[in-house]
Amino acid sequence: MSVCALWQGTRRLVAVIVEDDGHLRPPISVPATPSNAQYLLTYLAAIDIGTLIVAERSHTLIAQALALKLAVRLVPHDLLEAIRTAAGLKHRAPRDSARLLARWYLTPTLRLHLRELRAPATQEKPLALF
User: Fold this and answer.
1) Class of domain 2-117
2) By the 8 A CB rule, do 118 and 30 touch?
3) What pLDDT score does 54 carry?
4) Strand 71-75's sheet: what is its strand order?
5) Segments making up each domain of the chain, as ranges
6) What per-residue confidence (pLDDT) applies to 127?
7) Which of 12, 76, 111, 112 has the smallest CB count inside 10 Å?
8) What burial class does residue 117 get, using C-beta atoms within 10 Å of its C-beta: 0-12 exposed, 13-18 middle, 19+ buried?
9) How far, in Å, are 8, 91, 115 from residue 59 at the CA level?
10) Low-confidence residues of the chain: pLDDT under 70
């Protein structure tokens, strides 16, 4: 199973897939619309992506990924923004930030900061109101 880093910019949604051997595939870039996000996440689920790496403030993407039963790992916002600033990525194309997230998974020191997100457990019986 592969890993995919997903970056949501203001205009573009960019996915970078990391192969099992550590090589990065060319970025997949689509306009950042809700329907495109759903199609891209469905595609990632269909090609058996094992783990999805996203920024922790990508709430819509996180909810859609969990609905598709994708394993989601979150990158802490403060650390991500500090690294993006230091690397000069704030004024570059969204694909560069997506590549940063993909390399995050490949870097052992940064991988320690990834937080696994689990889907909330569904209740078998509804709770009694009274």
Assistant:
1) alpha beta
2) no
3) 94
4) 28-31, 12-18, 2-8, 49-55, 71-75, 115-117
5) 2-117
6) 67
7) 112
8) middle
9) 10, 23, 15
10) 1, 119-124, 127, 130
